[in-house]
Amino acid sequence: MAKAKLMDFDKALELFEPVLGFEVHVELNTRTKMFSTAPNYFGGEPNTNITPVDLGLPGSLPVVNGQAVRYSISLGLALGCSIAPSSRFARKNYFYPDLAKNYQISQYDEPIAFEGSVDVELADGRTFTVPIERAHMEEDAGKLTHVGGATGRIQGAEYSLVDYNRAGVPLVEIVTKPIFGAGADAPELAKAYVATIRDIVVALGISDARMERGNLRCDANVSLRPYGQEKLGTRTETKNVNSLRSVERAVRYEIQRQAQILADGGTIIQETRHWHEDTGATSAGRPKSDADDYRYFPEPDLLPVVPSAELIEELRAALPEPPAARRRRLKQEWGFTDLEFQDVQNAGLLVEVSETVAAGASPQAARKWWSGEISRLANARGAEAASLVSPSDVAALVSLIDSGALNDRLARQVLEGVIDGEGSPQKVVDARGLAVVSDDGALIAAIDEALAAQPDVLAKIKDGKVQAAGAVIGAVMKAMKGQADAARVRELVIERAAE
Questions:
Q1: Among 115, 145, 155, residue whose Cα is nearest residue 132
Q2: What does the record list as coiled-coil region(s) (predicted)?
């Protein structure tokens, strides 16, 4: 893949106005799929979570999942949308090798929710209102695995395997209107918007929203136009970006790439683009179709969805607090400074810290581990922090530290074991023998040995030079292979010197 020429970001913003648009796909965590009774959960052996409906077998008919409809209405209300008194499904015709019936059941001209907006808070506290055009229900496609070749994509592959487990999983697609005025904030706004949607669906309890699992995916549309021009530029759509950091990087990259092409007198092709995390670049996918190309027509096997006014009001009354209000409340409850809270929010770790606190950890401890060691390991592995470890495991790790069973040094080793799949924190402690030595007898023996090797240190401590104890503590920690509580060792050293 030839590397594209990129214009300096600041220069690109001097010449062109970026116009954004986002299509965020949210997988709903219903017990069964959108139109069948097949179980809906992540994982499982390929092609086991399926029914004849998911395979498009002749004579099989779809039935709408009522819980998915309720979840979709709740999400529409949380986005400030109007709920349609009647909405209907349509067939989106396209070559879908991972949807056996070769069309997708979606909604087109009559979505369940429309005309809303969501307030997105940027890192410096400014709020940007993103207009929502629609939120519509549909089904997810299956998963293709391309075997052979160097890229894992269809180009160069020897053959492809299809897993229909994901086919038919309930989705809500949230489509924004064109977003104007973001300017240099466009990449940050992209990341913050997707994070806000994630916060909303997690608060609603309608999706696991694990981007690394594909529960929440973003298609990012970017176009540029000269300042003062009313006509929109040709857009590209970077498909299925599955991390907050990648959404931000992909939007920045497309602005720089398109700006250079336009400045050189070239034209932008309306197409889908693929984001490559390893190279930090996008590559061409397929020419982007318009709605007419999909030959939408009403789904003949499904009746319109007609929610009652009572149901809509019941779901409206059950809405959780908006993300911005929740952030203000959490900051106050946790006692974080502006900087501490901003660090958590900017890192996209608000959900993880919140769930860790809910699992029993103190707010400061949760922030320390997520913003510190876990983020460091995530950066080293090129992964999202949330994909490495669960909040419940982090809370369990903190509990072991609080009880004195671990010190920070040992806890870091335990964390790596958990991330490497060795089990819960307690299982890693037991398997590796990493618990802090709490036997004072063993500690005193190590202290006496260290004092015998450094008799001058003992004399200094007796003379009141307590800082000299550091040399003994270091020797004891080395002898105990780090499995000692340094504070307790210090107490015992002082006690020995006082005898």
A1: 115
A2: none
CA neighbor of 200 nearest in space, from 327, 371, 112:
327
* Angle between helical axes of 350-358 and 323-334 (0-180°, round to 10): 50
| Number of C-beta neighbours around residue 377 at 10 A | 17
CA gap 114, 133 in Å, rounded: 6
3-state secondary structure of 430: helix
CATH number attached to the domain at 440-498: 1.10.10.410
Q: Which amino acid, 219?
A: D
pTM of the model: 0.74
Cβ-based neighbours of 183, under 8 Å, separated by 6 or more: 13, 17, 18
CA distances from 197 to 34, 128, 310 (A): 21, 14, 26
Distances from the Cα of 404 to the Cα of 212, 217, 424, 447, angstroms: 34, 41, 17, 20
Apex 384 CA angle, 379 and 388, nearest 5? 95
The one-letter code for the residue type at 264 is D
Strand ranges for 28-101 from DSSP E: 82-83, 90-93
Q: Is the pLDDT of residue 382 over 70?
A: yes
3-state secondary structure 143-163: EEEEECCCCCCCCCCCEEEEE
d(CA 168, CA 171): 9
Average pLDDT, the chain: 88
Question: Where are the chain's structural domains?
Answer: 9-312, 321-432, 440-498
Question: DSSP string spanning 407-423?
Answer: -HHHHHHHHHHHHTT--
Q: Is the pLDDT of residue 231 over 60?
A: yes
- How far apart (Å, rounded) are the C-alpha atoms in residues 49 and 32? 9
Place of tokens 């034209």: 267
Are β-strands 271-276 and 236-241 bridged in parallel, bridged antiparallel, or unpaired? parallel
Quick one: which of 26, 46, 62 has its CA closest to 215? Answer: 26
Alpha helices in 374-468 (DSSP H): 375-381, 391-402, 408-419, 425-432, 440-453, 455-462
Tell me how far the alpha carbon of residue 138 is from its chain's centroid. Answer: 21
pLDDT by residue (tens digit) across 437-477?
554 555 566 666 666 666 666 666 655 555 656 666 666 66
- Is residue 489 a contact partner of residue 477, using CB atoms and an 8 Å limit? yes
Q: What is the pLDDT of residues 69-103, one digit of tens each?
A: 999 999 999 999 999 999 999 999 988 788 899 89
Query: In terms of Cα–Cα distance, which of 209, 202, 183, 173 is closest to 128?
Result: 183
